[in-house]
Specification:
By secondary structure, the chain is α+β, with helices and mostly antiparallel strands. The protein is built from 7 helices and 20 strands. Helices cover 20% and strands 23% of the residues. It is an enzyme of class 2 (transferase).
């Protein structure tokens, strides 16, 4: 007898409440294996590929591409016993959060201590007598349909399409996400005619019902010169983070124009060095190294204001964030423990980080826990700006474009490579003297890389 399992949208990073379906890698009727990638989703932090937690056959996709689904809402139904010969499977175990020091493994594998790896965290220890029932929560597994099973191959009956009886005798067909949408928008499903297969009410049917009363007459040009894009995913998260930061931390921004000709000359020499021959050393790599050296003299820019504990947290490490523009919006992946890296290691890390970000493959974990950020507006030909501090940090440096400009050297006006820097800092944590000293140190190191020997 078929055994249907529903896979709910997981919380792929701490605190996420929803995610958007980007791409399905399976369709109804496909056989799937444990750990096989079945769907790619976009959270408020990044695009994430989700593996399948069971072996079986896909019976229905419960969410469409482009649909935003709340955490905990089922997105796919899988028949884990399509042949009808296996014993009924146990209900899926809700994953426990992973803890520091835990060794990860593939889904379904037994880990040290007898625990079974699940999508996030680990399940119960092997040999447990029974799982304690959860209160006030419906089981994830759903019963097979009551209708008899036809031996010939037929399209599977989707368990979630079986609706709850409603007053009046008529039972409209709709998936759980569509029912929730209708409830939130105040739409009576019994008044709609489904446009989906077998009369199933779709998300579009509900949205059209909401829009119908306010639709402009057909003779009116209602938007041929306008385009509306829903605010969601990375854009939504970025907007909220910037608003929170701008109206929480008192920003101060200082500017410095510097001659980086010596830095560019050193960069040219490094290209001929065997150690750097296959490494892409950019001005951003030099700026990152200068920041890491300057932090040692002004650790306040690497601290955090903890309002809940009424404390300033000073950190003896630097997780360096690099603001990156991607097709999905602005993301800030981190180089972990960047302060321990040499210039070569830093250059390699930055190159890999940029490639991953452009491909939209930066994981949520790689965008959390930063301590200082650099935004390279110079790649767009911009001289400088007033960057907004990332939430949880105390400073951000903007690196402007490097231009050939007249500069006074030993009383003579000569052409030099000139760049502008802008430092925004949280005035609750960083005083003006500290911010000015830090910016001056970064500028000095880029103007004369030899000063690094004295730090």
């Amino acid at each position: 007898m078929p055994q249907f399992q529903q896979f709910p949208m997981p919380d792929t990073a701490e605190g996420l409440t929803e995610a958007e379906i980007l791409t399905w890698h399976v369709k109804p009727g496909d056989a799937v294996k444990v750990n096989q990638i079945i769907v790619e989703i976009e959270t408020a932090k990044a695009a994430v590929e989700l593996p399948c937690p069971w072996d079986g056959v896909v019976t229905e996709l419960l969410a469409e591409i482009g649909q935003t689904v709340e955490v905990g809402v089922p997105i796919i139904t899988i028949d884990t016993d399509p042949s009808g010969t296996a014993a009924p499977p146990a209900p899926p175990v809700v994953a426990e959060p992973a803890t520091n020091g835990t060794t990860s493994g593939k889904i379904g594998e037994e880990m040290p201590g007898g625990r079974i790896a699940t999508l996030v965290g680990y399940g119960p220890r092997a040999g447990a007598a029974k799982r304690r029932p959860r209160k006030d929560a419906a089981p994830v597994a759903v019963a097979a349909p009551v209708a008899p099973v036809t031996p010939a191959p037929v399209a599977p009956v989707a368990a979630p399409a079986v609706p709850v009886a409603q007053p009046g005798g008529y039972v409209p067909l709709a998936k759980p996400p569509v029912r929730k949408l209708a409830k939130d928008l105040g739409v009576d499903l019994r008044a709609l005619t489904g446009s989906g297969a077998n009369g199933v009410i779709t998300r579009e049917d509900v949205e059209q019902a909401v829009a119908a009363p306010v639709t402009a007459p057909a003779t009116v040009d209602s938007g041929s010169r306008e385009r509306r894009v829903p605010i969601k995913g990375v854009r939504k998260a970025t907007a909220q983070a910037m608003v929170d930061s701008a109206f929480t931390a008192p920003h101060v921004t200082e500017f410095l124009t510097i001659d980086v000709t010596p830095m560019m000359e050193l960069r040219a020499r490094l290209k001929t060095s065997p150690a750097f021959r296959d490494v892409k050393v950019t001005p951003l790599a030099f700026a990152a190294k200068a920041v890491l050296l300057a932090v040692k003299r002004t650790p306040d820019v690497n601290a955090t204001w903890d309002a809940a504990a009424n404390e300033i947290v000073y950190k003896d490490y630097v997780h360096l964030g690099i603001a990156a523009a991607t097709p999905r919006g602005l993301v800030v992946p981190k180089v972990r423990d960047a302060d321990r890296m040499s210039l070569r290691e830093l250059a390699v890390a930055l190159d890999g980080l940029a490639t991953t970000a452009r491909d939209g493959k930066t994981s949520p974990a790689d965008m959390m826990g930063g301590t200082f950020t650099i935004t390279n507006v110079g790649v767009f030909g911009v001289d400088t700006g007033t960057p907004i501090i990332n939430p949880g940090e105390s400073a951000i440096l903007a690196l402007g474009a490097i231009r050939d400009m007249p500069w006074v050297v030993d009383g003579q006006v000569v052409p030099r490579k000139v760049c502008q820097l802008a430092l925004s800092f949280d005035h609750r944590v960083v005083d003006g003297q500290q911010g000015s000293q830090f910016l001056a140190d970064v500028g000095a190191l880029l103007s004369d890389p030899g000063l690094a020997m004295t730090y």
